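seq as requested:
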Amino acid sequence: MMGLSAALCVLFAIFIAIIVVPAFLGLMGHKVGPDRKNSFISKIIKSDKKQTTPERWGNFVAKRPWKVAIIGIVLLSIIAIPISHMELALPDNGSKSEETTERRAYDLLSKAYGPGHLSILIVAAKTSSETTNPQVALNDTIEELSGLSNVKNVSPAIPGPSGELYLISITPETGAADSETKDLVNDIREKAKTLEKSNHLKLMVTGTTAVNIDISQKLSDALPIFALLIIGFSFILLVLVFRSILVPLKAVLGFVLSLGATLGFTVFVIQDGYLIDLFGFPIAYPILSFLPVIVIGILFGLAMDYEVFLVSRMREVYTHTGDARKAVLAGMKDSGGVVTAAGLIMISVFTGFMLAPDPIIKAMGFSLTFGVIFDAFVVRMAIVPAIMILMGKASWYLPKWLDKLLPNLDIEGESFMKEIERKRRKVLSSNNA
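struct tokens:
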């Protein structure tokens, strides 16, 4: 549902951008912009002949491409290290601030009855035609379950109206988000396979805690496939757009690097508990189970936007000049400011999420804020131009056989510019005649 609603929102945004906005500009005409002759902004632009900040930064990167690329890659790689022990879970009231009534009630119950009291597991035991003595089988099952590690107590079986289904409550020693509770759920399911053969009882684990553990595990298992799908499709699309192999490859590898750094830094702060006071998190807690999916989706969209902003201008200049170095500098000069402004806008938005008291919203804002910082300013504004300077003309290599197969999307407006140039020459020739 979240994916479909987000996709629909983007679809509407595309329609507005290509239909509503041009129509509005067409209706307004020259009234949209200021008077070019007398406007204060125009005078400033004409009088300011100094290099812009993106242009100066582009020259800095072009002079030191090896240093910039190595420092950026090593920095993000080090920040990404904590991702190796990332744990996913759905938050409970224990992750909230101590000022909330939910957290105070959670602490009181945990202190009085233990943390496992709030993470009770429900086991449904179903008899079959082969179950000769259900009560004996249930007693044996309860004894076996009580012998598992991390079990505080097991309640007697409660029969249902039909007499074929029984409910058994298991209270673990640990809380719902602890890895020991997750291990207990897996142990119960493994034990159920053995008990089904010996006692002819089918055991099924359920309850809120087990459901949350299953959701977290399903999302964790789906992450690699999800990431590979969007990266693969985007690579194909970028090959069509930029008519290159190495430029799209560099784009998706840069995203993988920034994503790793984002999730690694999130684990470092939220899960491991470093700097939590600085960012206002109440306690260290496992990573929200659907946070990586959201971060991958949103951050990937922003990363590819920044890539297209930056590299489309480079592609346009390279197409007209054939000078790879000049193309990179032109892209940094003309589109670097756009990427910087877009990144700062999104950082401001996501930082606002971090001010929310709810730990879920705060965690999402934290991850996306640093995700944009890593991708926009480290990858797109530093590593990307440095790598393209080093690759030179090889950046735009495309096998001839592939070039013939691919349709020309022409996002740089090359065909339009050629048509303008053709008409200009036609007018000049007619005037000369």
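The chain has a mean pLDDT of 85.
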